[in-house]
Structures are given as structure tokens and as C-alpha cells.
Amino acid sequence: MKQIILLDIDGTVLQWQANLAFYCHDQGIKSDYALQMLLNEDFVEPSKLFGVSSRLAEQYIHDYNMSDYCRTLPAYRDALEFIEKYKEKYDFIAVTKFSKNPVALSNRMYNLHTLFPDAFKDIYSCDFSESKSEILEELKHKYRERIVMFVDDQVSNIDASIGIFGSSIEHILLTRGGKQVKTWYSDYFQVESLMAIDVPDNSLPF
């Protein structure tokens, strides 16, 4: 039985912002911030990104996630290399703040299963405005000692996971572009590429 690596998706495995400029253009929205996200991987608040109220910005994100723009998002090169390197030894489970909508989830599954065949054992998703804590609690209860690592590019998600798993698994904060950030905890590693992660070469004794 394989051990499990929990992987965030947007900003870690897939380039969520890759087709955003096309979406903005087709919606008549200025694409300045969408293009900025392509250049530097910076997070931009949805209301600033779309130039509307927070409530309307959420609707735009839901619409984008459910659209064909999000069905064929490209993967980061290091994600392709990392998952290909370890998928025979480990099961991957996606832990994503994408959507609970069936159409959006279908987009995500199509995207991941096409680019990473036979790699992802399961996909867990909450809405982008929700915490991943509930998902992480469920995974801890379901898989217990099989989970060995959680990788995410958002400090809040790393903090939530450390609060649930403690030091029983490795926590990796991915900082594309070399951004230096701090969490409330110190029990994590910070890397700029997935290929910089030192994955333990071991397996469960059953």
C-alpha cells in the first residue's frame, strides 16, 4: 500500500491564471492584473483582479472555474517532473480550493487525469473562499499514517494543516518566484520548486 502526498493544485500543480486574460477579455474586463499574475505569480484580491465588488468578483471566479477556460489549464514544468518521478511510489491526493460545483469539479478531474494519468488517487475540493481544514480533518481520519506530506503555496493552508497533523507529516510551503514568507509555525520547509522537495524513499510495511 502506497503512502500519500497531499498536493494543492492551483499555483502548485496547475497554472490557474493561465487562461484568465482570455476570460477577462471575453467578459469585457481589463486584463492588466491577470497578466501580472502570469508574470510574477502574485496573488491578487478578486475584487481588485476584476475591478468589481467582492461579491461580484466571487461570481466571476465561480464562472471562470466552471468554464472551458479551466478545463485545459497547463501544468507547471516542475509539477510534471515531480509527479512523474514519484507516482509509482506514492499516491497523490488533490486538496484544492476550486469549487464544489459538479461542472467545475468535472473540469478539474479532466485536467488532472489528462496531464497526470494514474497519479491522483482522489480529488478533494472546497470553495475558494473556504478553509481546507475540514478536508484535511477528513483525510487524516480516513488515511491516518499513510499521509506523509502536504504541499501548498498558501501560508494559511500550511498553518491549517500543521494545526491538524502537527509534526506527524512533512509540510512544504511552495514559494514560486522566491517570495519569503512566514507562518505562525516553524515546522515546515520552504522551497521554490517541487523538484527541490526531499521526498523520503520509504514505504509502509504492508
What's a quick, concise take on this entry?
The protein is an alpha/beta fold and 206 residues long. Helices cover 39% and strands 17% of the residues. The protein has a six-stranded parallel β-sheet, sandwiched between helices.
Mean pLDDT: 92
The whole-angstrom Rg is 17 Å
Number of helices: 8
Global morphology: globular
Order of helices and strands: EHHHHHEHEHEHEE
Q: What strand order characterises the main sheet? A: 3-2-1-4-5-6
Distance between the termini: 6 Å
Assess the beta-strand content as a share of residues: 15-25%
Helix content: 25-40%
Which consecutive residue ranges, at least 5 long each, have pLDDT under 50? Answer: none
Tally of extended strands?
A: 6
Give me the secondary-structure category.
alpha/beta
Task: Report the major sheet.
Answer: 6 strands, parallel
Describe the 3D structure:
With 206 residues, this protein is α/β, with parallel strands linked by helices. Helices cover 39% and strands 17% of the residues. The chain contains eight helices and six strands. Strand 2, helix 6 (102-115) and strand 3 form a beta-alpha-beta unit. It starts with a strand and ends in a 15-residue tail after the last strand. The model has no long low-confidence stretch (mean pLDDT 92).
List the helices and strands and how they pair.
Elements: E1 3-7, H1 20-26, H2 32-40, H3 46-50, H4 54-66, H5 77-86, E2 90-98, H6 102-115, E3 120-127, H7 133-143, E4 147-152, H8 155-165, E5 170-174, E6 189-191
Parallel strand pairs: 1-2, 1-4, 2-3, 4-5, 5-6
Helix pairs in contact: 7-8
